[in-house]
Specification:
Layout: H1 22-36, H2 38-45, H3 67-84, E1 95-96, H4 101-111, H5 120-144, E2 155-156, H6 160-175, E3 179-189, E4 194-196, E5 201-219, E6 234-240, E7 251-254, E8 259-265, E9 268-273, H7 277-284, E10 290-296, H8 297-300, E11 304-306, E12 313-318, E13 330-333, H9 339-345, H10 375-388, E14 392-405, E15 413-423, H11 428-436, E16 439-441, H12 444-454, E17 458-460, E18 462-463, E19 474-476, E20 482-483, H13 486-499, H14 503-506, E21 526-528, E22 532-533, H15 535-540, H16 542-545, E23 557-563, H17 570-581, E24 587-593, E25 596-598, H18 614-620, H19 623-632, E26 639-641, H20 643-668, H21 675-678, H22 687-708, H23 712-734, H24 736-741, H25 747-767, H26 772-781, H27 808-833, E27 843-849, H28 852-860, H29 862-869, E28 873-878, E29 885-890, E30 894-895, E31 902-903, H30 917-926
Parallel strand pairs: 1-2, 6-9, 7-12, 16-24, 23-24, 25-26, 27-28
Antiparallel strand pairs: 3-4, 3-15, 5-6, 5-11, 5-14, 7-13, 8-9, 8-10, 11-12, 15-17, 18-22, 19-20, 19-21, 27-29, 30-31
Helix pairs in contact: 1-26, 4-5, 6-13, 11-12, 18-19, 19-20, 19-23, 20-23, 20-25, 22-23, 22-25, 23-25, 25-26
Amino acid sequence: MSQDYNKTLNLPKTDFPMRGNLPKREPDTLQKWEDEDLYEQMISKNEGKPRYILHDGPPYANGEIHLGTALNKTLKDFVVKYKNMSGYCAPYVPGWDTHGLPIELKAMKSIGVENGAISPVELRKHCKDFAMMHVKNQMAQFKRLGSLGHYCDPYLTLKPEYEARQVEVFGEMAKRGYMYKGLKPVYWCPDCNTALAEAEIEYENDPCYSIYVKFQVTDDKGLFTKLGIAKEQIYFVIWTTTTWTIPGNLAICVGPAYEYTLVRVGNEYYCMAAELVSATMKAAGITEYETVGTFMGSELEHMKTKHPLYDRLSPVIVGDHVTLESGTGCVHTAPGYGVEDFEVCKNYDDIGILVCVDAKGRQTKEAGEFEGMDTDEANRAIAAKLTEVGAMLATEKIVHQYPHCWRCHKPIIYRATEQWFCSVNGFKDEAIKAIENVRWIPEWGEDRIKGMVRDRSDWCISRQRTWGVPIPIIYCKDCKKPIVNDTTIHDIAALFRKEGADAWWTKDLSEFLSPEVQCECGCKEFTKEYDIMDVWFDSGVSHSAVMEQYDCLQWPADLYLEGADQYRGWFQSSLLTSVVYKGAAPYKTVCTHGWVVDGEGKKMSKSLGNGIMPDEIVKQYGADILRLWVASSDYHSDIRISKAILGQLSDAYKKIRNTARYILGNLGNGDGFHPDRDSVADDQLMELDRWALMRLNKVIAKVHEGYESFDFHVVFHAIHNYCTTDLSNFYLDIIKDRLYCEAEDSVERRAAQTTIYRILSAITRMIAPILSFTAEEIWSYLPHAASDDAKSVFLNEMPQTSCIAEDDAFLEKWDLIYQTRMEVNKVLEEKRNEKLIGKSLEAAVTIAVGDEKQYAVLCEEADILAKILIVSAVQVVKADDGNTAYTVTRASGEKCERCWMYLENVGKNPAHPTLCARCASVIAQGE
């Protein structure tokens, strides 16, 4: 009776599933991490190592996370896990931004009330409940992505200790003279009814009408009349895109160094910049005109014009902010509606400030007949009136970039109001120096934030809302002077630390203010400031409110990692508060990512129907595929995502998973492979094994380099290419014969097992920060050495390069062998298509080598070439014509029933007449 030799083979055996089934399997891993408190285990194990602090920029707690949020949280998780596996203790305290208008508006909507309909304390309670609900929801979503962190005690901007430190930082900035209250034009959202900071502005394309308006000259200082032109015939022509601001016009500004001219059209003369005459006449549809005279802008200063709609003068002034990019070079100047207008008018004592719109954006009584109109209504009515009185020279429909509110996405207005400001000018130089001491990734980030800080003079930090930290200012009841000093700040901070900021509305000043506080005028009675602080100030003090108040953290942070929009947001607010409070930047390195767009590079939106939510991806593909998408992208620019891209990544994932499964199968068969018992020493490894480990060394070095530079796509591609090119297509394919056919405990087989064990152990640890769920799953099936922590892959160190010696000659030889296999495979495929052979083991290959050096190398390795090419016989000969060629014939001899090679020695052992000598020997050893 013939023997079943299949049972004598060491065929792969493992319970590690072929299919990832990630959506179903990942939640079990999450539960295990929760039950075992993996994050705290990881931090405890690393206690005493150097600290590495990635400080979390707080997401806003007002809705579901989107793909941009998922991208950000996943990138941070890569860093935290890698650092904790690389010789650092890297605690991660996640945080949430929990104050601000979006939460306040949604909270009011959820309870069905209008602003002012309920008390501030009651409204704040609803806001807190709303924010905490979303903190809980987002926390669960972040955990589902595989994020590990100190989620048991996250930082929240609404926590009393946070609010107290915020007050202290404000107090220090006020003490140094950087906080002031003043009347100044600010961005104002009529819909949200509050001031806005620059970081809360988004520019969108906005269609509008630009208008050209004539202001009649009343006093030309004799400059025009000496040309024989009556001043009543002369008009300065201004241009604006904000018709509604015309009632606030108090001056016309010209560029002092520009040339101006008079344009005669019929009996009228229009003063404008000489360079803009042609464009202005085209806009007005005027073809018959001539220019008269040339004047420098500086000569026009102090002329007087008459406002076309009101009985008042609009003097001509000069300003360096005037450009010739558009308009007429004569700038409509309304100091109540623009910062540049406001600043230039301060140079003239006879020009005041006029604001003709209220908090809701409606014209006030100062606007006369336009009172009560909103912006759109006023635009139409004012344009009609200008046309009626003959002051409208031209109108032109244009589309321009106009600021919109980041919350409601409606156009904002500029409006001068009394607000609290932080004077950035006061410490701008220090801020610039601090920027220069930071590593910026990408490098252009340094110039970007420098430019933004240089262009910023003031930061409006007051908001006319309820849900936030109140500005800790009291006012003298008699003289109305604002009072802020060490005592008031100490008392307010102590109150907030004990009871939270709600106490500002529930406590009388007498209940917490020290009795010695008094105004310079002698008054001891005070009122409170009820404006709240800008939420960017809230999050901007987290460097102190978090990093200096959590024992596990330290100041400054090693890394801030956020979207590129944070150059004008959190990066900047953190920098400004830190430079004043601590004298330096709060971060050593700042890294930014781009936006998530669809597969065609288009912005994702509900209206386009091209949006994908993280939850959809996790449910269909699993969190590891989403994490792989993050890792595979060069995230510094915009990152594309689509079902097709996710499908491609799923295929890449399968390659890594199948590589792991193949290796596990060859470590788990028979009596198994126990690293401490069965590993062989390096000098017992075969050359092919050494080559595989040398290639692994290069991958390890590349992976470390990628992680250290935050180039995670380098990590992914290095590992994926190794699995595909070096392992599946070469090494693992070649060693099948050794693993399956050699004796179970032979040195040859143990050498192969030692190699693949070291490879998989290294790959599993290297992919752990990225494919966290899969790495943990592989780790649970992998046999472990005593030096491993088998509980979790995250409790182990990243692999280091081995001491496998390599020299140029060795690498050159194996490069030749590798290339020879690639070329032979092409010829084998041709012969397979010609039906000469089926399996490659049916072939014998003759290699005619033209190069002398290559011929010597291949002759020397002739004994192993058949195994490497996976054929039954190889002959190396010298090419007569000097060109290397490959010839394939059918192998001679009989087919071994066990290893399937065709060899002349099959049947030489009478006990096993269908086996080759090698296989017969292996069977004999086991009998």
